[in-house]
Amino acid sequence: MDEKLKFIKNNHCVKIQTKITELLNIDLPIIQAGMVWCSGWKLASAVSNAGGLGVIGSGSMSVDILEEHIIKCKSATNNPFAVNLPLMYKHINQQIDLIIKHKVPVVITSAGNPSTYTSIFKEAGITVIHVVSSTKFALKAQAASVDAIVAEGFEAGGHNGRDETTTLCLLQEVVDAVNIPVIAAGGIGSGNAILAALSLGAEAVQIGTLFASCEESSANENFKQALIQVKEGDTKLVMKQLTPVRLLKNAFFEKIDKAESEGKTVEELREILGKGRAKKGIFEGDLIDGELEIGQISSKINKILSAKELINQLLQEFDLSLQKIKHLPVIY
Amino acid sequence: MDEKLKFIKNNHCVKIQTKITELLNIDLPIIQAGMVWCSGWKLASAVSNAGGLGVIGSGSMSVDILEEHIIKCKSATNNPFAVNLPLMYKHINQQIDLIIKHKVPVVITSAGNPSTYTSIFKEAGITVIHVVSSTKFALKAQAASVDAIVAEGFEAGGHNGRDETTTLCLLQEVVDAVNIPVIAAGGIGSGNAILAALSLGAEAVQIGTLFASCEESSANENFKQALIQVKEGDTKLVMKQLTPVRLLKNAFFEKIDKAESEGKTVEELREILGKGRAKKGIFEGDLIDGELEIGQISSKINKILSAKELINQLLQEFDLSLQKIKHLPVIY
After folding, report:
1. Is B85 helix (H, G, I), strand (E, B) or coil?
2. In the predicted model, what is the mean pLDDT of chain B?
3. Check: CATH 3.60.15.10 for A3-218+300-326?
4. What angle do CA A308, B192, B181 make, to 5 degrees?
């Protein structure tokens, strides 16, 4: 390694300015994904304190628990943070009231129609970002006046789009189609991938899988240890007849995957799934019968780091990759 | 657009130097994929003449036809070109003899074990590149002493790996795992994507889908016109119980997809597939009953260009993206 690269390796960048960092008033174009059973106030505040945007995932929280997490997050960081809000949940109106009451600066909406709620947040001065898996939905979100979109590809963990469009393909379409900033999600597992996303025209990345394995993640230790062992090919998108979801392969996965390939009906699949399986797997650590939502890029996890350590590692990789690209011999 | 960008827009780069351009003695890190019924001598020589590496796809050729294409390609370009060779085909030994006899400078092997044939080519002074869809197979190819690998992700057209690892995820794994140069394939549909691939540590890209639609492609005009109409979500990976293949959705696709989701046996699926369907679709232009192999990124095709025009467009996009990345405000 030459002296210049050595310097960068030990002194990674502290600020990368993009339209998203300006919109959200943060230092780094790194957004932590809201994830069920992983992203409470501990993870969110750690990410925000490290210069990214921490996100409380309300999908696995009751209204009371969400309020507790918002209050704790505010006291643990002075930096902006967000709440991720699946729009199809039953307590949606109470959750919205809470977010407005506590002046949460950013809301990331998903799993639902952004046109119903975006204006409520915007009137309260809250920045709205909506998660999509296709250009069609990106255009709908833009029409609903959201401030930015997260474009999430097939390789992402958890619930996923039906078109199976990968992050690489989706970005090439969506960045051209909309004129609001795009955040790349799905498969971001290194600083190189952050630079790749920016090369594709994204203004930031959203990272779920890597943060799920962090010290501050609420996931069960069993689940985190399992993530260290994941190899390429160990996750798969299943339950395509219900809501497609990417899972780590385990006994439960095999059961539902087999049922699906045998042509079982939606009702039969729903019965096999039952209730509370993600909690059982991710939060309670049942690696056999639990539903282990995680992305393809979990194969890159080889150590449990703090959110700060993970971000530092990503920035070092980003710097090295950026230097290499800046010095690429291109002749005109 | 500022003056500098305007200049670049009209005067794109003519040379991008990487380990792969040095290995292959070409100007641009752009390799055209060998594709059944698309990539004969016309497309291959056009790509090589434009500074990339043109590739004759032998998968749909008899031994005599392959020889004819090699001879015509040599007379149509003075630049290096390659033959793509699926290793499981029955005339493999005669094809190898031909490639050596005509001193084809590069061979790209796929669909088979590289340890059987690599040494034969290397002894004849031929550069060997092997196509893989996983890090496991990349390591095997490296152990077989190939000179470089193509790492091809889930979004690629045609035959595909079983793990469903996307190009973005695969590159992040494979580049760290091997010490030979890696060529990114699957989902490369713009100059931005070329820069993204280089950011991820690839030394070149392999592009299939975009070249399949070019003027010089042997594909039927019906097929090319269909490619212009493709929208996001119009392709899908099917026949997972036989050999997974990404197809454009048409009547044949619906038939086999339905059969698969109903849990039909391998034998039943094979009967539905029958023989010669790719030829019927791609070469004869039967858009109803043909097997239309194409990648997800076909949604980016909106005009039939010559190979030279396509490459120029990619280079212009690459330049713009590179300038943006070079000027990214990063603070240390």
Report:
1. strand
2. 95
3. no
4. 75
In chain B, where are the structural domains located? Answer: 3-218+298-326, 231-297
Domain B3-218+298-326 in CATH: superfamily? Answer: Aldolase class I (3.20.20.70)
Q: Which residues fall within 8 angstroms of residue A180, CB to CB, at 6 or more apart?
A: A142, A146, A147, A148, A149
- What six digits make up the tokens of B41? 């001598």
| Residue B154 Cα, gap to closest chain A Cα (Å) | 8
pLDDT confidence of residue A235: 98
Q: Which residues pair with B150 in a beta bridge?
A: B131, B183
Query: Contact, A167 vs A187, CB < 8 A?
Result: yes
Does A163 contact chain B (CB < 8 Å)? yes
For A158-207, the pLDDT digits (tens) are 999 999 999 999 999 999 999 999 999 999 999 999 999 999 999 999 99
- pTM given for the model: 0.96
User: How does pLDDT run across A117-152, given as a tens digit for each residue?
Assistant: 999 999 999 999 999 999 999 999 999 999 999 999
Please indicate if any CB of chain A lies within 8 Å of the CB of B257: no
pLDDT > 70? residue B84:
yes
A273 CB within 8 Å of a chain B CB: no
